[in-house]
Amino acid sequence: MSDIVQVDIELLGRHFTIGSPVDERETLLEAVRLLEGKIDMIQQHGKVMDADKIAIMAALNIAHDLLRTKVGEGLEMASFQRKIRNMSEAADTALRESQQALF
């Protein structure tokens, strides 16, 4: 188990102290920079001014980008997750059917 460090950040004029494992501190700071970039982009467009709405829009943008990320052989993350979910459901169904056949 790694040690926890307190990381001070500021987003949308608000101060946050976040606990993070030492070996994940840089990743957390990179995530903060990514979020700041999305926030700046939204603020530059000037359509959304409320801090809560800006934060939600930035989070949705990041989530959308993540789901569009290509994995493996060019498969989009969302499609990849659907395929895994479908395989899991098929395995659960087959297991239930085989258990019913045994009893």
Automatic annotation (TrEMBL):
Q: According to its UniProt record, where is this protein located?
A: Cytoplasm
Q: Name one process (GO BP) from the record.
A: FtsZ-dependent cytokinesis
Cellular component terms, GO, for this chain's entry? cell division site; cell septum; cytosol
Sorted UniProt keywords: Cell cycle, Cell division, Cytoplasm, Septation
Function (record text):
Activator of cell division through the inhibition of FtsZ GTPase activity, therefore promoting FtsZ assembly into bundles of protofilaments necessary for the formation of the division Z ring. It is recruited early at mid-cell but it is not essential for cell division.
Assembly, per entry: Homodimer. Interacts with FtsZ.
Protein name, entry field = Cell division protein ZapA
| Organism encoding this protein | Aquitalea aquatica
